[in-house]
Amino acid sequence: MNFINKLFGKSRSNPNGIFYENLQKIIGFKPRDYSHYFRAFTHASMQEKEADGTDVNYERLEFLGDSVLNTVISGYLFKNAPQGNEGYLTVMRSKIVSRKHLNHIGEELGLLQLLMRKIPDHQLGKSITGNLFESLIGAIYLDRGYVFSEKFIHKCLIEEYVKLDELEKRVTSYKSLVIKWCQKNKYDFNFCTKSDDGCDEQQHFSVCFYIDNEIVSKARETSKKRAEEKAAKRAYYALQNRIKTRELNI
Fold it and tell me: Is 66 one of the catalytic residues?
């Protein structure tokens, strides 16, 4: 592995030594094969390749880590929520592994400080820390197997953040909530979304949310999905001023 060998060093006084030290503080054990972890914290902007032309970056490990994470959380919920049906378990899992939640954990662990890249932070995207958390799980899985991955997830996520009774009350999608309310009460609704770059370098989207042809809320964000979710959240609270709160608790 040419790129990994080029980075690999023994001294803790050089940048690689700092990488080793910080990594072990985060994961709580000494890795057997550091190459997986270097890959887990290498951004595509480095444009590094193996001798066979394979890209060296965290993206494939992110995919693997996502699968391992979902398996661990599914097992935890199956054991700790014995009365929950399939729908309940699916909703609870989605709350635990939400992108916002994983981004927060990645920030708390300081994963961005380990990332090797050739672009500034503001170009990395809003989900970079959550992506790195998943790629780190993938690296642990390849290096030490499922048991170590499970212990790491329990320590960093489940023990610190998972309280089932509180999660049951947490709203993860205001858009779904508002749509269900409109359908339940037989209101016509529509998200009118359009590209709105304005004076910004980055593309933006503007959304107007209508109920029975009346604008209830507006929002603007850097993706259509985020703009619609923000508009739905604003609509949720605007509607609470017009109707009984309990009608939205569906």
Answer: yes
- What residues contact residue 129 under an 8 Å CB cut-off, 6+ apart? 102, 103, 104, 105, 106, 107, 111, 112
Cα 239 to its chain centre, rounded Å, is: 29
pTM of the shown model:
0.70
Annotate 142-163 with b (16+ C-beta within 10 A) or e (fewer).
bbbeeebbbbbbeebbbeeebe
Question: Residue 134 pLDDT > 90, yes or no?
Answer: yes
Residue 181 burial (CB < 10 Å; 0-12/13-18/19+)? buried
Quick: pLDDT tens for 46-87. 887 777 777 888 999 999 999 999 999 999 999 999 988 998
Of 66, 150, 228, 229, the catalytic one is: 66
- Contact indicator for 146, 173 with CB cutoff of 8 Å: no
134 assigned to active site: yes
- Residue 143, beta-bridge partner list: none
Give the C-alpha separation, 120 to 122, whole Å.
6
Domain 2-167, CATH among 3.90.420.10, 3.60.20.10, 1.10.1520.10, 3.40.50.300: 1.10.1520.10
Domain 174-248: give its CATH architecture: 2-Layer Sandwich (3.30)
**Catalytic residue from among 48, 62, 134, 228:** 134
Q: Return d(Cα 245, Cα 236) in angstroms, integer.
A: 10
Phi and psi at residue 206, in whole multiples of 5°? -110, 140
Helix (H, G, I), strand (E, B) or coil at 60: helix
